[in-house]
Amino acid sequence: MAAVAELVTTEIEGLFPEQWEVPQNLREAMKYSLMAGGKRLRPLLVIAACEALGGRREAALPVASAIEMVHTYSLIHDDLPAMDNDDYRRGKLTNHKVFGEATAILAGDALLTHAFYSIVQASRRFGVPAECVLSIVEDLAEMAGPRGMVGGQIADMEGEQGLTELERLQYIHLHKTGDLIVFSLLAGGRIAGATEQQLEALRSFGTHIGLAFQVQDDILDLIGDEGKLGKKTGSDLKQEKVTYPYFIGLEASRQEVERLTETAKLAVSEGGFSDSTRLLEIAGYLMKRDH
Amino acid sequence: MAAVAELVTTEIEGLFPEQWEVPQNLREAMKYSLMAGGKRLRPLLVIAACEALGGRREAALPVASAIEMVHTYSLIHDDLPAMDNDDYRRGKLTNHKVFGEATAILAGDALLTHAFYSIVQASRRFGVPAECVLSIVEDLAEMAGPRGMVGGQIADMEGEQGLTELERLQYIHLHKTGDLIVFSLLAGGRIAGATEQQLEALRSFGTHIGLAFQVQDDILDLIGDEGKLGKKTGSDLKQEKVTYPYFIGLEASRQEVERLTETAKLAVSEGGFSDSTRLLEIAGYLMKRDH
């Protein structure tokens, strides 16, 4: 997994062609957050899904770095004073603390936009069929957009009228984190030429590990190690956020993470993939993670 | 032109399929700015370029509304307190004054993301070839991204090191406004199946009317009618922005608008289009506009 993360980092370092005239501080702001020590989970999922179906790792790289850009943009905007107002992330100053608010907003915008450019390069550089790349563009626009990640973010921030707190929690988890995880798996599958049935297996796997990931996040915010997490714990309580431990308790939340992970593993083992090892490894890793 | 603007507005009203679960306040914030009385210039250019080459108007509509979404997102983010800090635009309260800063940031993010979804629908709904739609996605990501509009915006806001003021002014005009105008024309052309030579003619037309548009903007900010513009004039002077009238004077700026418009018209008349009337009309309208 470390080797794959390294590959993705190298791909991201070649973010812009040399000859591109990009203002220096914009370039630095984009790279600062992209290189701030993320786990590269979503790129790993793209590549793992692609390889599970016998696809080529290289062909998945443009989409793998695209999803990391989208994830990074969402963190930069989330951290803004108008949103979560966080000064630190992963133990480093947040983007707007280093570059100022205006540049941080624009660096986020640029990362989101450039992600779509990167996806198209799967066709230009590796000959992935245009029809397939177009489906990936459509998926990303849907899952990162108003009814996907941004919708989840709004619901997290402001609350949604007419929903119970539990419905709202589920909506937030499904969209704010889950959609990009599902996207990553579908995109990797599409690049490898997945059948509809295989895409469904990947979607189910993604939905379940996505939810497990989020419940684990809730748990870590409550009892995690601040040093390992690189951020202060207890922020959910302080911001009065609805969380799984709040609803069902800590022990039941832990069991829920296990149950969701098992369901995810089952989905993938029934997907008819040529090699599911990496996907199962990632699911296991996520369940046990402490940061 | 009014009829086409009307068509685009109808297309935008059908922004999300009915069954889409989008948080209510996000939906409202997106629509508020999309329906705030924009001139629909960029969508008109998409359609005019498409029709100039004998393409179908309907097939251009998804891209026409996409570019209006991108333009609208850029205005919402530009108006934010961390950026230009504007309370009014086109005589109406800006997005963040109505919905709050966090929702305004997210509404902008959602509009940008959804624009890419809309572009893909040109293939889904009207059978535009995937290869062609992919080129439109690539163009938009390039021209709205770090070396396009966002690059121009950064340069406008913070200045760029190592450039003279005139070089910086040209960079800003070329990218902050010009790139989306060029994109609109290229996209319309692509939908109609333009040849490389025709795309070059559209690019030249777009670059010149884009620059003329911006110089005219500089002029209107200096001597325009606040009632017609729906905003205060003199803001460039107050913010000490570099403008064309500042460099070459008001009368020479007026002549520059005319010269650029004539060059644009020449490019289009030599492009070998089946009917350039609409494009020439728009160029003439832009030159004479007072708001």
List the domain count of chain A as a whole number: 1
Q: What's the CATH C level of chain A?
A: Mainly Alpha
Q: How are helices and strands ordered from N to C of chain A?
A: HHHHEEHHHHHHHHHHH
Strand composition percent of chain A: under 5%
How many beta strands in the DSSP annotation of chain A? Answer: 2
The CATH architecture of chain A can be given as: Orthogonal Bundle
The chain pair forming the largest interface, with residue counts per chain, is: A-B, 58 and 58 residues
Largest sheet properties of chain A: 2 strands, antiparallel
- What's the overall average pLDDT of chain A, rounded? 91
Instruction: Tell me roughly what share of residues is in helical segments of chain A.
Output: over 70%
The shape of chain A is globular
CATH domain topology of chain A: Farnesyl Diphosphate Synthase
Structural class designation of chain A: mainly alpha
Oligomer classification: homodimer
Looking at CATH, the homologous superfamily of chain A is Farnesyl Diphosphate Synthase
Q: Return Rg of chain A in Å.
A: 18 Å
Question: Which consecutive residue ranges of chain A, at least 5 long each, have pLDDT under 50?
Answer: none
User: What strand order characterises the main sheet of chain A?
Assistant: 1-2
**Cα distance, first to last residue of chain A?**
16 Å
The number of helical segments of chain A is 15
